[in-house]
């Protein structure tokens, strides 16, 4: 789960107006050029450090396909050369590893021998805790005030709780890696199956169960075999995951959201205003009763307990399941691939089903997770922010003072875009008639630019719900004129995705947030892995009918007996001091 959170995966009030990173003198004496030969000020986006400065980092390179051209690599590519030539920033990798566990080992080793850390790196959980305890990180308060993009500062103020885990003695030691937060659950259904079986889209859990029954028993794929189930769902990691999650089922019965595979999710307020781990709240029985009933009736795959989200989606893609919950982007991958099996397949997103009392709800995808932190010896925060601001501004277009016009069409021609007949082409190069020798990659596929662009920032800079207005605008009118790169990106969604995104944003108010935003506690570090395993296995045993629903009470007792009481006390001590 920790690895998935890192993947997947997901800042302050305006204090100083327009950010003037150009011309800031670093403690190393290197200066960004900030004027022309006749003394005129240049725009804040147009800076170059002379002589060049070097920023070191460490990275997990998972050997993603389509990341580089044959003659390029993570350490030497069009973007690393562009940064040095145009910005005066050299990226150096202290280490490149293939697994997140190996990155943790590198950091632990550096701490053990008092070794040098990279200038910037990613940290969370116990690693972050150790770095803070060892006093190895740079306080960022002054740098944020002086150099951070105003929109970043604004987000830090609005979502100040995200800073709790990196706050020590009143100082800030890390930046949360924000997600856009627009991936809230929608209900995907095979619309063509509904029509074939003369069914209406379900609006309640009861109606959904009728749809699952019909999809499971009435051969909607028409192959004459009993090979369908209603719901494609991964249960290997519990109710909450990055795709195929069943948070909407829990949300139909309670305002208590559930996760079993992450001890930091979801902590909800109980009737007395204290925090309780949602997986042990009595309301979870209603979720378990429903899931156990559906499993017993054959509405879910018997292998669901061994499947992760990608494996579960194969059932839907192969025409053997007709309902799956998840984010809006599923309308392209993986559900878009269903037409390869059935050309008539049509997935559509629908609003969430209501429970017997009219309740609807879904999990708020965590708006942050891993943090970007900096070695206490790092002397070029103004340069790091200058680059970060440039990437962030790319989302907002030319009106943003940090928007680099050199990135107006994309980042690098021939890489993430091609220009032909004055048209910017970013996908489907063969279909668009782009000659083979102009394709970014030999097979005509698009390049994954993330590995070039974000080694120093740890990921694409994003702000919570920054896409929401564009989604609303284009959901209402897909032909509306786009004015920002964000709107251009939303306009590029296929029709199923755009409809789904509109549904998700319309139901944003149903999101149930996690209430605990503190550090990994001592109790979590000691007992968390066992309790996560206990919770997930207990849920599976009930859903599969191996244990009766009454076993839930025994599970809860075991949870508290084996450290859950300690963690609950720690969480509530934190909540008393930090409750909004």
UniProtKB/TrEMBL annotation:
Q: Which UniProt keywords apply?
A: Signal
Q: Which residues form the signal peptide?
A: 1-32
- Spell out the Gene3D superfamilies in the cross-references: Periplasmic binding protein-like II
Q: Which InterPro entries match?
A: Bact_solute-bd_prot1 (IPR050490)
Which PANTHER family has this protein been placed in? Answer: ARABINOSE-BINDING PROTEIN-RELATED, POLYGALACTURONAN_RHAMNOGALACTURONAN-BINDING PROTEIN YTCQ
Task: From the Swiss-Prot or TrEMBL record, give the protein name.
Answer: ABC transporter substrate-binding protein
Q: What is the lineage of its organism?
A: Bacteria, Bacillati, Bacillota, Bacilli, Bacillales
